[in-house]
Amino acid sequence: MTVRPLAELIDRHAAALALFARQWCAVPDDVVQDAFCRYVVQSPPPNDPAAWLFRVVRNLAMDAGKAERRRRAREGRVAKAEWFAEREIDGLDAEAAVAALEALPAEPREVIVARLWGGLTLEQVAAATGCSVSTAHRRYETGIAMLRERLGVACPKK
Fold first, then answer.
1. 1-42 tens-digit pLDDT
2. Structural domains of the chain in order of their starting residue, each with its CATH number
3. What does the chain look like in DSSP terms, one character per residue?
């Protein structure tokens, strides 16, 4: 396939194909790009390129939509998973602790979860989050202080 006919097909149909794909999925441009990539490798090329592209876009968009729905359902189930197995731990209300944890900004929360639930060292947390060890430590300390404040838990005496 030469570049000129492909460019003409893209110019003529890409916008309409994206609109067509939008009916079924949230990533119509990706679907259209995938369809054109598949078109290029067709041997022999389809007799009616426009009809072929619309059919392929429809199928890909429907598949992408199903995948999106499955992903959202799976993420919804995971999001509802309980952080604590017990309802109360050492006098701490688990629901209140979860609410306080979820209310934290993303950076301290990810450090706390990796450190406490994941059992990572601060060095490992820093590597996983792409920051320095001192930044990971600062985020951890900040997050713990915010949790203590929200939960009304005093800092333990040393």
1. 566 788 999 999 999 999 999 999 999 999 999 999 999 999
2. 3-80 (no CATH), 88-151 (1.10.10.10)
3. --HHHHHHHHHHHHHHHHHHHTTT-S-HHHHHHHHHHHHHT-SSPPSSHHHHHHHHHHHHHHHHHHHHHHHHHHHHHHHHS-S-SSSEETTEEHHHHHHHHHHS-HHHHHHHIIIIIS---HHHHHHHHTS-HHHHHHHHHHHHHHHHHHHTPPPPP-
